[in-house]
Amino acid sequence: MKILVLNGPNLNLLGVREPDVYGIETLKDLESKLKVAANELGCEVDFRQTNSEDELIGWLHEALEAKSPVVLNPAAFTHYSYALRDACAALTSSGVELIEVHISNPHAREQFRQNSVIAAVATGQIAGFGFDSYALALRQLAKG
Ligand code: DQA
Predict the structure, then answer these.
(1) Could you give the 3-state DSSP secondary structure of residue 102?
(2) Which helix (H) or strand (E) holds 58?
(3) Band of the pLDDT at 105, cuts 50, 70, 90?
(4) Is the pTM of this model over 0.90?
(5) Is 61 a catalytic residue?
């Protein structure tokens, strides 16, 4: 099984950006950890990051076409992108699982982060466990 792990804007800056919130490990470190986890779970990970809403939506359409489950960290798009929400809904309403993940716990942060426009159309949400949020999502999706 191939699982798409999609990362939204500014996550390319992991390790540099607000290390007190997101830690000191990089996006490359995250990718390496997930590749190891995927290997243990017997699945394949296609790991991507973009700062572009357009590109992220295109990748979700690709997942829909291929019926590939998705781990999505929508980053700031979480809080306002109805276009991304619609793309996620297209996926989950056709039976493809999508788990929304966050490194931090947005519910414990600024008010504007406490609303996710994605959550209601995701299969589930995992937040607040650092990079382990992704590993937990992977484990769930690997169950099939
Ligand atoms: C984030 C939380 C978002 O509020 C923020 O905009 C991010 C990262 C997280 O993983 O904790 O860029 O999605």
Answers:
(1) strand
(2) helix 53-66
(3) very high
(4) yes
(5) no
